[in-house]
Amino acid sequence: MTIDYSINAPVTADQFIDLLESSTLGERRPLEDHICMAGMIANSNLVVSAWDGSSLIGIARSVTDFHYACYLSDLAVHRDYQQSGIGKRLQAITQTQLGPRCKLILIAAPEASTYYAHLKYTHNERCWVLEPGKSIGD
Protein backbone atom coordinates (compact mmCIF):
# COMPACT_ATOMS: atom_id res chain seq x y z
CA MET A 1 0.00 0.00 0.00
CA THR A 2 1.38 3.39 -1.03
CA ILE A 3 0.05 6.36 0.89
CA ASP A 4 0.65 9.84 -0.50
CA TYR A 5 0.77 12.84 1.84
CA SER A 6 -0.08 16.37 0.76
CA ILE A 7 0.09 19.80 2.32
CA ASN A 8 -2.91 22.06 1.66
CA ALA A 9 -4.21 19.90 -1.19
CA PRO A 10 -7.84 20.63 -2.05
CA VAL A 11 -10.25 18.63 0.13
CA THR A 12 -13.99 18.96 -0.47
CA ALA A 13 -16.50 19.13 2.35
CA ASP A 14 -17.94 15.80 1.16
CA GLN A 15 -14.52 14.10 1.26
CA PHE A 16 -13.94 15.54 4.74
CA ILE A 17 -17.36 14.37 5.97
CA ASP A 18 -16.89 10.89 4.46
CA LEU A 19 -13.52 10.54 6.20
CA LEU A 20 -14.88 11.66 9.57
CA GLU A 21 -17.83 9.26 9.21
CA SER A 22 -15.38 6.40 8.67
CA SER A 23 -13.22 7.33 11.66
CA THR A 24 -13.92 7.67 15.35
CA LEU A 25 -13.94 11.48 15.08
CA GLY A 26 -17.27 11.70 13.23
CA GLU A 27 -19.37 11.22 16.33
CA ARG A 28 -18.02 14.50 17.78
CA ARG A 29 -18.40 16.71 14.70
CA PRO A 30 -21.51 18.32 13.13
CA LEU A 31 -21.50 16.06 10.05
CA GLU A 32 -25.14 16.89 9.24
CA ASP A 33 -24.32 20.61 8.92
CA HIS A 34 -22.72 20.77 5.46
CA ILE A 35 -22.17 24.56 5.64
CA CYS A 36 -20.31 24.24 8.94
CA MET A 37 -18.21 21.34 7.68
CA ALA A 38 -17.38 23.22 4.45
CA GLY A 39 -16.34 26.23 6.53
CA MET A 40 -14.19 24.08 8.79
CA ILE A 41 -12.14 22.73 5.89
CA ALA A 42 -12.09 25.96 3.84
CA ASN A 43 -10.90 28.16 6.72
CA SER A 44 -8.13 25.93 8.02
CA ASN A 45 -4.74 27.35 7.13
CA LEU A 46 -2.78 24.10 7.42
CA VAL A 47 -4.23 20.83 6.18
CA VAL A 48 -2.06 17.74 5.86
CA SER A 49 -3.87 14.92 4.10
CA ALA A 50 -3.20 11.25 3.41
CA TRP A 51 -4.43 9.64 0.21
CA ASP A 52 -4.71 6.10 -1.07
CA GLY A 53 -5.08 6.84 -4.76
CA SER A 54 -7.94 9.34 -4.98
CA SER A 55 -9.39 8.34 -1.59
CA LEU A 56 -8.86 10.64 1.38
CA ILE A 57 -7.88 8.29 4.20
CA GLY A 58 -6.37 10.69 6.76
CA ILE A 59 -6.30 14.34 7.71
CA ALA A 60 -4.61 16.68 10.18
CA ARG A 61 -6.58 19.95 10.04
CA SER A 62 -5.03 22.92 11.85
CA VAL A 63 -5.41 26.63 12.51
CA THR A 64 -2.05 28.27 13.17
CA ASP A 65 0.08 31.41 13.14
CA PHE A 66 3.06 29.13 12.27
CA HIS A 67 5.27 30.79 14.89
CA TYR A 68 3.81 30.35 18.37
CA ALA A 69 0.70 28.17 18.35
CA CYS A 70 -0.83 25.56 16.09
CA TYR A 71 -4.22 24.19 17.11
CA LEU A 72 -4.61 20.73 15.62
CA SER A 73 -8.41 20.76 15.35
CA ASP A 74 -8.94 17.38 13.71
CA LEU A 75 -6.78 14.31 13.38
CA ALA A 76 -8.67 11.52 11.66
CA VAL A 77 -7.68 8.29 9.96
CA HIS A 78 -10.12 5.97 8.19
CA ARG A 79 -10.87 2.91 10.35
CA ASP A 80 -9.43 0.55 7.71
CA TYR A 81 -6.07 2.34 7.90
CA GLN A 82 -5.74 2.91 11.63
CA GLN A 83 -2.80 1.47 13.57
CA SER A 84 -0.51 1.79 10.54
CA GLY A 85 1.36 4.99 11.47
CA ILE A 86 -0.67 7.37 9.29
CA GLY A 87 -1.85 9.55 12.20
CA LYS A 88 1.69 9.82 13.52
CA ARG A 89 2.98 10.75 10.05
CA LEU A 90 0.25 13.40 9.60
CA GLN A 91 1.33 15.01 12.88
CA ALA A 92 5.02 14.83 11.98
CA ILE A 93 4.40 16.53 8.63
CA THR A 94 2.27 19.17 10.36
CA GLN A 95 5.14 19.85 12.75
CA THR A 96 7.62 20.29 9.87
CA GLN A 97 5.48 23.16 8.55
CA LEU A 98 5.76 25.12 11.81
CA GLY A 99 8.45 27.44 13.09
CA PRO A 100 10.94 26.15 15.67
CA ARG A 101 9.10 27.78 18.62
CA CYS A 102 5.59 26.77 17.57
CA LYS A 103 3.63 24.54 19.93
CA LEU A 104 1.27 21.87 18.60
CA ILE A 105 -1.92 22.01 20.70
CA LEU A 106 -4.93 19.71 20.61
CA ILE A 107 -7.91 18.52 22.61
CA ALA A 108 -7.92 14.73 22.68
CA ALA A 109 -11.00 12.56 22.50
CA PRO A 110 -11.35 10.67 25.80
CA GLU A 111 -10.38 7.32 24.26
CA ALA A 112 -7.31 8.86 22.59
CA SER A 113 -5.62 10.43 25.62
CA THR A 114 -3.04 7.69 26.05
CA TYR A 115 -2.14 7.89 22.35
CA TYR A 116 -0.73 11.41 22.67
CA ALA A 117 1.29 10.73 25.80
CA HIS A 118 3.48 8.18 24.01
CA LEU A 119 4.14 10.73 21.23
CA LYS A 120 5.69 13.10 23.83
CA TYR A 121 2.76 15.53 24.12
CA THR A 122 2.46 17.11 27.57
CA HIS A 123 -0.93 16.88 29.25
CA ASN A 124 -2.42 20.27 30.15
CA GLU A 125 -5.61 20.68 32.20
CA ARG A 126 -6.10 24.39 31.46
CA CYS A 127 -8.54 24.22 28.57
CA TRP A 128 -11.75 26.26 28.67
CA VAL A 129 -14.63 26.15 26.20
CA LEU A 130 -17.35 28.74 25.62
CA GLU A 131 -20.25 26.88 24.00
CA PRO A 132 -22.33 28.47 21.20
CA GLY A 133 -25.26 30.48 22.54
CA LYS A 134 -23.41 31.53 25.70
CA SER A 135 -22.40 35.17 26.04
CA ILE A 136 -19.31 36.45 27.78
CA GLY A 137 -20.21 37.71 31.25
CA ASP A 138 -23.90 36.69 31.23
Automatic annotation (TrEMBL):
This is Acetyltransferase (GNAT) domain-containing protein. The keyword Transferase applies. It comes from the Bacteria. GO terms for molecular function: acyltransferase activity, transferring groups other than amino-acyl groups. The keyword Transferase applies. PANTHER family: FAMILY N-ACETYLTRANSFERASE, PUTATIVE (AFU_ORTHOLOGUE AFUA_6G03350)-RELATED (PTHR43233:SF1). Residues 36-122 form the N-acetyltransferase domain. Keywords: Transferase.
